[in-house]
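Dear support,

Our group has been running a series of protein-ligand predictions, and this particular one with thiamine diphosphate is the one our PI (initials K.S.) wants archived with full inputs and outputs. We had some confusion internally about which version of the output was final, so please treat the block below as the authoritative record. The input we submitted was:
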Amino acid sequence: MCKPVNIRVAGFGGQGIMMFGQMLAYCATNDNMFSLWVPSYGPETRGGTANCSVIVSTKMINSPVFTNADVLVAFNQPSLEKFKEMIVPGGCILYNSSMIHDPILPEGVRGYGIPINDIALELGTIQVSNMTMLGAYLEFSELFSDATAEKVLEKYLGEKKAHLLGINKQAILRGREALRALKG
Amino acid sequence: MCKPVNIRVAGFGGQGIMMFGQMLAYCATNDNMFSLWVPSYGPETRGGTANCSVIVSTKMINSPVFTNADVLVAFNQPSLEKFKEMIVPGGCILYNSSMIHDPILPEGVRGYGIPINDIALELGTIQVSNMTMLGAYLEFSELFSDATAEKVLEKYLGEKKAHLLGINKQAILRGREALRALKG
Amino acid sequence: MPIKGYLTFESEKCKGCGLCVAFCPVKILYLDKNTLNQQGYPIVKITDPDKCIGCASCALMCPDSIITVEVKN
Amino acid sequence: MPIKGYLTFESEKCKGCGLCVAFCPVKILYLDKNTLNQQGYPIVKITDPDKCIGCASCALMCPDSIITVEVKN
Amino acid sequence: MEVKYKKTKGLTDSPLSYCPGCTHGIIHKLVAEVLEELGVLGESIVIASVGCSVFSYRFFNCDAVQSAHGRACAVATGIKRNLPDHVVFTYQGDGDLASIGIAETIHAANRGENITVIFVNNAIYGMTGGQMAPTSLIGQKTTTSPMGRMAEVHGSPLHISEIFSQIDRVAYLERVSVFNPRQVRNAKNAIRKAFTYQVEKRGFTMVEVLSSCPVNWGMTPVDSLKWIEEKMVPVFPLKVFKDKGVENNV
Amino acid sequence: MEVKYKKTKGLTDSPLSYCPGCTHGIIHKLVAEVLEELGVLGESIVIASVGCSVFSYRFFNCDAVQSAHGRACAVATGIKRNLPDHVVFTYQGDGDLASIGIAETIHAANRGENITVIFVNNAIYGMTGGQMAPTSLIGQKTTTSPMGRMAEVHGSPLHISEIFSQIDRVAYLERVSVFNPRQVRNAKNAIRKAFTYQVEKRGFTMVEVLSSCPVNWGMTPVDSLKWIEEKMVPVFPLKVFKDKGVENNV
Amino acid sequence: MGKILMKGNEAIARAAMLGGLEAFFGYPITPQNEVPEYLSRYLLEEGKVFVQAESEVAAINMVYGAAAAGFRTMTSSSSPGIALKQEGITYLCGSELPCVISSVMRGGPGLGSIQPSQSDYNQATRGGGNGDYHVIVFGPETIQETIDILKEAFDIADYYRNPVMVLVDGLIGQMMESVDLTKPVKKRFLPEKDYAANGTKNHPGERHIINSLYLESNELEHHNLSLKKKYDLATANETRVELINMNDPDYVIVAFGTMARVCRSAIEKLAEKNIRVGMIRPISLWPFPSSVFETMDAPHLKGILCVEMNLGMMLTDVLVANNGRHSVGFFGRAGGVVPDPDEVVDAILHFNERVVK
Amino acid sequence: MGKILMKGNEAIARAAMLGGLEAFFGYPITPQNEVPEYLSRYLLEEGKVFVQAESEVAAINMVYGAAAAGFRTMTSSSSPGIALKQEGITYLCGSELPCVISSVMRGGPGLGSIQPSQSDYNQATRGGGNGDYHVIVFGPETIQETIDILKEAFDIADYYRNPVMVLVDGLIGQMMESVDLTKPVKKRFLPEKDYAANGTKNHPGERHIINSLYLESNELEHHNLSLKKKYDLATANETRVELINMNDPDYVIVAFGTMARVCRSAIEKLAEKNIRVGMIRPISLWPFPSSVFETMDAPHLKGILCVEMNLGMMLTDVLVANNGRHSVGFFGRAGGVVPDPDEVVDAILHFNERVVK
Ligand SMILES: Cc1ncc(C[n+]2csc(CCOP(=O)(O)OP(=O)(O)O)c2C)c(N)n1
Ligand SMILES: Cc1ncc(C[n+]2csc(CCOP(=O)(O)OP(=O)(O)O)c2C)c(N)n1
Ligand code: SF4
Ligand code: SF4
Ligand code: SF4
Ligand code: SF4
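Confirmed final output from the archive:
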């Protein structure tokens, strides 16, 4: 990887958008890469939508902002509409196909729909839909190993939420599988 | 008068220093001359000494401050000591000889001692000592007519203090007389 | 004859907070987790419209003023 | 034997306010308008030192703490 | 069919920006209903303070002035002194009124400014993400009292209405809440009285409303109402503190 | 011979900057005597506020911090939290404490900062030349209420001690005066109690002292004391508002 | 002549009333106390609004309210008091509300002194509030000029919907001088205040909202750019400067307010020594009269001396305006000391020692 | 590497603790809330002082008290909150008290927005308090640099007995980046705090008085001049700047903070187009690194482009430093918009349209 990867993540408040982004940034730090996570913040996160951006890079990151992203991870329809035009040609959109049906994507952009709500509900709780998406992203990007992701996840959940580790790991796995199936 | 006249007035708080200075400035305005009155102000006027400066001129006054005065009007000993060195050679010091005895004046400066406390007490109240000094100053400077001084005084005292007009006028007169006697 | 109430909801503005549900004395309101509005909230629905007594407790408690209550004697 | 008081004044710091005069129960203090200190204030004096009962009311009321009161039984 | 309840014209069409179940919304509509019922919307000016209710300038269907954090009562003074026949009111949170703005509020009250203050006490800073407020309860965990509020470290909950009851020129002062339909009706009566007194030029009026902040309290909206009833009311008793319209003043 | 009264070592040699007969001087020496008697001068820090007493940093024979107008209690908080075993007190006029500084004072009290506030209420702004204060009496002529204070225009005198009596973490609060020797002795007792409570770490203590301003009231010093007794005391009754050391709290 | 003797602060108050002042809010502070004291009597007498606020913070926010309701309003203060108003001032600018602020400078920093000073030049012209905003600032040199500017200030404020500050030092506030209150000032066409929040019954069908909050960056940027347009307009139209003795000068002095008066005396004294000294006297401090530095025709100029009653604040504006063309020197006294003309004479005589760039 | 991922605001808090912070006083405001939130837990855990003040005004005055008593103290706020601290800041300067102020900028004026901005450059570097004073201001560009400066800031504050401000935009506050908390920073010899008002029992026979009041002009001027000496010393010793790519550039960009990072990307992109662009990145904003403009060796320089997230504030300092030598242009976005590298590229490509002087 010589160019930094610019990733935009967006969805409803409550869908775990921020955690998704932070997990990527933590993974990068864990693997001695550079990373930068930028949230949208403030009252607009109240109720409405939430989004954040992540940059992962093997060299020092200069500009913390980007207009054109390499990847969009869209957790719901409005987010897809809002951000899809920002994806560079050759870029990619991962979307939540449980909530987004038959999306129209910009030309030259690949799309992968993962039914993360459904998978998460199958696993027992909608709460892990974001980690399902993370699994898909990891599979897609080949940026970080499972070992890295699991180590970071463990830290992220901490002692208090250690009991959720298993289900979250499972979600990552299921996400990977789903993406692999799509990639064919 | 082509050069502005710079006058410094100083004494204890309560001796009517400010009124003395303002009367001069009002007289000048009344006679269509330029004038400028600058008080010392703030807590240092509390208790301690009070002083102000006056500039009278036939043309626009530029600098409102001066270091060297043409005239010092000293109502008490500390004021004389504080300001006497600022008087230009050829300048003049009018002092309250009821409180200042045998002063040592800078070389080249004339001095006139007027026993304003005594004169004022003779007139019935120490309160008019400042107007006694004003009379002396008017006699000395020949700047303003009695008519001007009286007109201004009347305005200054206003309706509320109209009853004091007579005694203040008398004080001015007695001050003039005292100075005339000194001038010889 | 008891008073009969009729409710209408401006569902797009519903935030799924559940206050109306909690204060309905006849317990006929519920949140439908399967119907999200454009804001992403589950919206309020009514189980048994016939039972509504038109007390307007739901409407009174709705912070977003989305419930209209009409009554017929 | 009644208590006898002795006053000393740090007159240069006197401001001639007259509070001591007003609160002396035996009325032996006065302001001397003819003796101004360097600040220009008339200073407090005592008419009849023998009458001082050493109650220290004057000293207590003096805002400038210039009165020292000593007593002898 | 007869309309028993519908959204008041005192509110605009703009959707409220509050979190789901936040009782700011209930208080908004009570105030708006009162203004509509008194027929004073056309002469009303709301001062929107800084807090979650900053956007109330969008919601109340009357003229509006957004003010600096804590200064709503000073802004109201500037308006009301110039427009003495208008209805001028502030809508302020506890951070805004009780913390940074207590000086402005006390002095407006003490001058007897003929305005109405709607004081929304939710025991926390909502807008900025759940910091401790002067009215936070002992033991309450907030983002700046992570171990819970401790009297020895953080002080006790500030009793605004009790304090304002000591100010002569306050004409009406009541603490109410909105944790159930009965309290909501009570609250509306208090708000109506306050505005009526303002119209009658009786002086400063204030209604303190105990309100919820489900998001920052970390509770469901319904549990939040229970928390008001069970935890807040014992600390902040609901009562009329002052009513100049009643003889034998409380 | 025995010294019955002499100037306390709690004051420096610097002549007081107050006007003739101003009771700021009396209050100064009472505080200084108490500090001397309690033996705490070496660990005391006075916060000089902005007002005629701004120079009190010259007068009290201990360390001193001059603070911005109204902010003495915030400054005191900053000091005391770091030096909890020191004796920290503010000396503030009514403009400083009751007007611009009321927020800082209320919140220091509410946090229960273990400091002592000497609140000198002379019903006017002395330092700046006699403007109206929040505590000016109805009818009182000042340079900014030239026709006299009117309740409808300027509001009523603000009752600081009454207000602070509503704050939980206030440990001691009394209003005293110095208009005659008996009152001076009373005042000293109150001040002593306040400082003693501070040493005992009981919380926030405040003594409100009704004081004179002969120059700006336009009266002789002696008449000024009568005015305190006859005009101020009826409006600002002298009493203990709070005493955590006594059971059955007032 | 119809002149009367008036104290600077009272002149400020009276001139504001002549300029249409409807509501004053202030808090006591030396050396400007006579402003509120005067208004507490005479503004109330005219049935207008005077409120002594509980603090400077409250006062500026009362001004915000009065301006929001469409009234001509003013506050007055001095150094630390102005510091406390900075948040209110940026709000007024952000919400585009007009008002007049009189600032009577004393020595600083902190409590400083109450003696006259110009060390609040930065405070006035650079603000201390947040964001991209400007206050229109005038720095008159006489009481007469102070009056004339104040009489016009409300018009200017209304025209730009922006605060206008009149910045004088404590000397101008405290001294008395002969003045003419009746001198006519420029009148300008003012649109109606169709933004005032004075109840929808006065403008049915349309709510008036006074606000400075724009959560979306794009909206806020749009707002910033529209404010900038206004500031550019003010720069084009409200820049005021007096050029004195600028006919082929050896040196040019730049000074404002009381300092300019002192420099006038110095220039006379220097003329006696056959040294030709001109003066650029900025009357508007923001916008600063930069362009006169560009167009200045002074073939024999040895240097520009900036003279201030501070340690070098307007100097920055002079350096920017000069842009390297001439050698620039500085002379200033601090702490409330008003320099004597002789000191300025001396600074010109030893210009080389004064050069900063 | 030992790096950890940290949010800017938390890094500020942690670094302050590493720098020796003993007492924090603050009031909530977005986008800096994580600073007090972090400290409310971890500072208290270490038995140090954390107080949530009732307002920004109270907070800065609590800082004043803590500093007066000799403790390492800090406050943190954002735009309108900093405006409210201006009086307190001038008091700290006047009384020569050290402290650290973290300012996390959002859009303005007024309530503005909570999006990142640099429009408080004037507020930070010119103050808004009264009088002749300066705050030492640093404007780091990464979280790492923010940490390094904060760790040193208390030393610098103590050394000069003056407030030190660390000025970042909301983006630096809100974003997360990998950082190393253990990087060593310069240590300096610090004299004892022999001014602290901590009771005469700690310094018998001598009263310590913290004060900024000097009623006599001469005394105040003396004080001002001694402050100035200190500021001159700070200018000589604390000016910090990074020079990037300054080898015979076609253009030079001047930018700080987040804007400088964006410009780095732009410079890379311009290099691809064979346009050599260097950058002067001021790290200390006051003192401003003027001298590098004088010593700059750039024979082919076509111009200097000042780039800011505001409408032109640092520009003044650039113009003064440049002093007419080169043509100066400006590019900025306002209102909380963070420009994209491409916009900067474009501004360089069309430099002529950007020229201001
Ligand atoms: C001068 C200033 N300080 C701080 C803030 C940040 N701020 C915004 S809202 C708020 C407090 C909100 O709490 P509250 O008033 O209780 O209202 P709520 O949001 O809980 O309804 C604060 C501190 C600000 N905008 N301006
Ligand atoms: C921020 C600020 N505002 C105003 C002032 C001016 N000022 C100095 S003292 C004072 C009030 C004095 O009154 P008070 O506190 O009652 O004390 P007193 O002089 O009567 O003892 C004021 C307003 C100031 N120095 N700083
Ligand atoms: S109370 Fe209102 S917003 Fe809440 S669930 Fe019911 S209808 Fe929806
Ligand atoms: S009370 Fe003190 S200051 Fe006043 S007259 Fe008596 S001795 Fe002098
Ligand atoms: S943060 Fe709290 S107070 Fe604010 S809108 Fe949400 S629930 Fe209501
Ligand atoms: S002005 Fe008043 S309060 Fe101040 S010292 Fe003089 S008499 Fe005392």
